[in-house]
């Protein structure tokens, strides 16, 4: 089989040495490891198809991997096999301004795609925190969210068409270049967020918007995160949909400040980061409303960024919150619970109580406007097994609370191996069965990303 | 422990757990934010040659998952440029440069040390013996008072580009130039002898007791980590707001671009200063990849000439496309690398050290 793999991708793109395999044993998720038997980097859709056909014949697991920046252990080869890296497929194929779309190979970085669109006066809105490194294929596979979700939605709202290689080697092209197209089941949406369990995405067509002419960012400070959560409700009922509405608690502010030196408020308990874009006049009006709503909710200070650089610095700092948190301890375990917006303040308070009960340090930040929270457990040491166990018990309770409040166990990071044990609680057994039957229809040999969705 | 020379050798016994400072090693959370900044990852697209991947390898070495003689460990310890471009983009604050020094301190001991590295470190030690030439000899005086500022004469610069120190002295004649001065130890520290590097830096700190002004970004960064940032001033920092004149070519202002020194930028955060100086005397053009390593990377250009050229080539393309007269370096290694690349391309662009360019302006 190795000889055949070598013949397909070339020996320089097949990696077998222990050290080369060790670095593909994990992604950005802590605590999950699985040693692959080989790493292969195909150059195009055709090579992907040949590799998958071979893997199905031999019954060898294949784990597709973009940048490996996911936070759900979605690309960890739990049962070994082949890690298929998509980074060589990194060409932007076209930007079509008259159709307002772009077509790119799967390994193009989210930022490169955004820059290519911007060069034509267009805008690709989804911006996950890892956009400088994440690939568009990975974004589609995980249906990545980001800081602009509130106003613009998430990755799925922009995917028009996909080229996907099925585990059995067939190449299918779902959707296409059309906004309206109801011919058949919406497989594009099914594969978006399928986390590499149904097929390997090799090409993506995304819809673009006109680049907003103006954008601004501001910060409001509060005594507590609960209070910031209440301000979110105030803003959203004031007739504004900000492009960005994020919050950070004090621990997160400290971590970010250490990295980015922004001069954040030294004693506020929480920060609400807000932003809007569009026509100058519209942005100015929504800023008035947001500021008023924050002040009505007891903000202890509201500041708006002076220029684009300052705005960008604030947004960058927010995107870096998770890695910056690792300044506080050696191990950071992060979660991704999401609740309906009106329950946000309640959820924040419940998380605090859960953290206290389980004696863990929990720092919380997240996409407040989406009700999407990232409570993050910071532990002194990765070897602290007792601490990890306490963190896991606390998180199990966080999930249960989210579900109880009408929310979900993962808003945007995905299920992967990390959330799979909790998935049935969220979906129920009938849906779990259906998911497994869908998985079997796509992947009869069960070779694609085993131990994740559909397993 | 006595005899610093012995330390690195005795550490090659099987206690790989003590190779790294565990606090430093545990900082990385594998988020991957470093990938786009890494020049070797850009060449290969392989995690193995990314900062995140190399830290995974270091951990495998520390935990014993990979044996010390694993070929991937050896290859990656040497393939890394050590440019530290991963550090400013790391939100977690991983001190990659420090970890690399510790890694090479273990990896490059005894027979595992690349032959070219052995030769170069030997050559550098010999270079101190070089006599100070020309104008410098006249200016040289000993001893130096602690209140004085001294000009440091880099080991390689002294033999390859003696004119750089002369220009620096022309721009800042008040600097003392002690005859006896050793090596700053950066070369050793980056090439598997961290203890010896530290010892040399401390020695140099004692030989030049006041503030040390250096024309080499790499030396500035390393020396700062050992003797303290407050005692080290890189030349472009030192000359802020003190340079006058213009560099003109054929009746117009010269167009100049800067190539950052990796350690000066990523280690010390000094990158605005040389740009400000260049803007004050010429028309400044920012190269798109000015902050990216040129491939000189200390001994790298000699240890891995092929990879060094692969890193350099796109930069020469940029320089050629920028329509500039001069590309300016703030570190002698970069200067040598750029000159060689431009010569191979038969380019009309000239590479100069910032001291030489500023002197052109003053003349």
Overview of the structural elements:
Helices cover 36% and strands 20% of the residues of chain A. With 455 residues, chain A is α+β, with helices and mostly antiparallel strands. The model of chain A has no long low-confidence stretch (mean pLDDT 94). Chain B has 20 helices and nine strands. Chain B has helices spanning 4-10, 22-25, 39-44, 51-63, 71-79, 96-107, 115-127, 134-139, 155-160, 162-171, 186-190, 194-207, 217-227, 235-238, 262-267, 272-281, 300-303, 305-321, 332-344, 354-362, and strands at 149-152, 211-214, 232-234, 248-249, 252-253, 255-259, 283-285, 326-329, 350-353. In chain B, the strands form three sheets. In chain B, strands 7-6-8-9 form a four-stranded parallel β-sheet, with helices on both faces. Chain B has a three-stranded parallel β-sheet with strand order 1-2-3, with helices on both faces. A two-stranded antiparallel sheet of chain B has the order 4-5. In chain B, strand 4 and strand 5 (252-253) form a beta hairpin. The interface between A and B is large, with 40 and 32 residues.
């Amino acid at each position: 089989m190795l000889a055949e793999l070598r013949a397909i991708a070339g020996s320089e793109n097949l990696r077998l040495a222990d050290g080369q395999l060790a670095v593909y044993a994990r992604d950005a998720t802590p605590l999950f490891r699985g040693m692959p038997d080989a790493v292969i980097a195909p150059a195009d859709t055709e090579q992907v198809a040949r590799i998958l056909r071979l893997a199905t014949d031999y019954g060898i697991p294949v784990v597709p991997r973009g940048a490996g920046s996911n936070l759900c252990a979605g690309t960890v080869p739990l049962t070994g096999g082949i890690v298929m890296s998509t980074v060589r497929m990194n060409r932007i194929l076209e930007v079509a301004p008259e159709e307002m779309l772009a077509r790119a190979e799967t390994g193009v970085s989210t930022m490169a795609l955004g820059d290519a669109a911007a060069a034509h006066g267009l805008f690709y809105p989804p911006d996950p925190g890892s956009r400088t490194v994440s690939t568009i294929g990975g974004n589609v596979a995980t249906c990545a969210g980001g800081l602009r979700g509130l106003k613009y939605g998430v990755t799925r709202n922009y995917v028009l068409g996909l080229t996907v290689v099925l585990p059995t080697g067939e190449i299918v092209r779902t959707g296409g270049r059309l906004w309206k197209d109801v011919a058949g089941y919406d497989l594009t949406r099914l594969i978006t967020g399928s986390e590499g369990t149904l097929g390997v995405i090799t090409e993506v067509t995304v819809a673009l918007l006109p680049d907003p002419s103006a954008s601004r960012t501001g910060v409001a400070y509060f005594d507590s995160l609960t209070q910031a959560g209440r301000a979110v409700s105030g803003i959203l009922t004031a007739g504004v949909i900000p492009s960005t509405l994020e919050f950070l608690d004090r621990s997160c502010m400290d971590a970010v400040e250490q990295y980015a030196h922004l001069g954040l408020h030294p004693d506020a308990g929480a920060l609400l980061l807000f932003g809007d874009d569009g026509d100058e006049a519209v942005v100015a009006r929504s800023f008035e409303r947001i500021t008023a709503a924050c002040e009505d909710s007891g903000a202890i200070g509201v500041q708006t960024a002076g220029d684009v650089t300052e705005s960008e610095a604030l947004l960058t700092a927010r995107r870096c919150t998770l890695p910056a948190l690792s300044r506080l301890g050696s191990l950071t375990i992060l979660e991704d619970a999401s609740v309906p917006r009106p329950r946000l303040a309640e959820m924040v308070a419940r998380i605090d109580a859960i953290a206290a009960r389980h004696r863990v340090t929990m720092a919380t930040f997240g996409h407040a406007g989406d009700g999407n929270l990232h409570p993050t457990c910071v532990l002194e040491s990765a070897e602290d097994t007792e601490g990890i166990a306490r963190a896991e018990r606390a998180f199990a309770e966080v999930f249960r609370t989210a579900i109880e409040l009408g929310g979900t166990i993962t808003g945007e990071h995905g299920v992967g191996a990390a959330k799979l044990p909790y998935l049935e609680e969220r979906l129920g057994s009938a849906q779990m069965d259906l998911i497994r039957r869908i998985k079997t229809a796509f992947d009869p040999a069960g070779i694609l990303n085993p131990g994740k969705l559909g397993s | 422990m006595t005899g610093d020379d012995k330390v690195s050798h005795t550490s090659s016994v099987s206690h790989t757990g003590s190779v790294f400072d565990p606090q430093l090693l545990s900082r990385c959370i594998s988020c991957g934010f470093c990938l786009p900044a890494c020049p070797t990852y850009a060449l290969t697209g392989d995690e193995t040659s990314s900062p995140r991947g190399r830290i995974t390898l270091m951990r495998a070495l520390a935990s014993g998952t990979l044996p010390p003689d694993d070929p991937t460990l050896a290859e990656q310890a040497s393939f890394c440029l050590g440019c530290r471009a991963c550090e400013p983009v790391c939100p977690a604050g991983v001190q990659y440069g420090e970890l690399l020094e510790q890694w090479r301190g273990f990896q490059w001991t005894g027979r595992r040390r690349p032959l070219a590295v052995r030769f170069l470190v030997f050559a550098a030690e010999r270079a101190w013996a070089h006599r100070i030439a020309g104008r410098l000899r006249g200016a040289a005086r000993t001893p130096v008072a602690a209140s004085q500022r001294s000009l440091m004469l880099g080991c390689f610069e002294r033999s390859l580009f003696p004119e750089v120190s002369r220009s620096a002295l022309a721009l800042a004649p008040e600097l003392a130039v002690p005859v006896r001065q050793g090596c700053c130890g950066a070369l050793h520290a980056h090439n598997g002898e961290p203890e010896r590097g530290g010892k040399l830096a401390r020695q140099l700190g004692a030989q030049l007791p006041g503030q040390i002004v250096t024309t080499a970004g790499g030396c500035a960064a390393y020396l700062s980590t050992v003797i303290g940032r407050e005692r080290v001033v890189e030349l472009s920092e030192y000359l802020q707001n003190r340079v006058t004149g213009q560099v003109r070519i054929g009746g117009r202002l010269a167009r100049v671009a800067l190539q950052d020194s990796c350690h000066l930028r990523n280690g010390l955060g000094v990158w605005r200063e040389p740009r400000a100086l260049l803007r004050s005397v010429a028309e400044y053009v920012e190269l798109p990849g000015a902050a990216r390593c040129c491939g000189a990377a200390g001994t790298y250009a000699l240890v891995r000439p092929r990879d060094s050229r692969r890193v350099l080539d796109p930069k020469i393309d940029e320089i050629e496309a920028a329509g500039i007269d001069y590309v300016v370096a703030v570190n002698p290694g970069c200067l040598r690398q750029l000159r060689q690349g431009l010569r191979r391309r038969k380019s009309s662009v000239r590479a100069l050290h910032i001291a030489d360019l500023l002197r052109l302006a003053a003349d």
